[in-house]
Amino acid sequence: MSTSLILPLVLIIAMLFFMSRNQKKQRARQEEMKNNLKSGAHVVTIGGMHAVVESVDTEKQTVDLNAEGVILTFDLTAIRTVKTAEATQATQAASAAATDDSTAPKEVSESTTDSPSTATQTESEK
Q: Which candidate, 125, 48, 118, places its Cα nearest to that of 79?
């Protein structure tokens, strides 16, 4: 084999090695997350639903999620992320602030924009 063929072959093998290594690390993190999943944890599913874990069935590989009073059963593979306590508190604070703003009466301000007829009059006056 010539050196012009060896270098690309070595690069391809190195690239495949690093890709498989990263996949193994990611798979290990996902397995650890699923094994440490407990009742009361805040999670996000692969569909984007935010919920709280009610129970975990390791035999059936399912998890029951409480989404604002609705209990849904998902496969463990449907859990994308488990939120940290800080992220959960920030989300709850933001939702509390949003509900406070929505219940408060809104002030009506006078419109400062000119109507088209007023704008036409000012242009013709100039």
A: 48
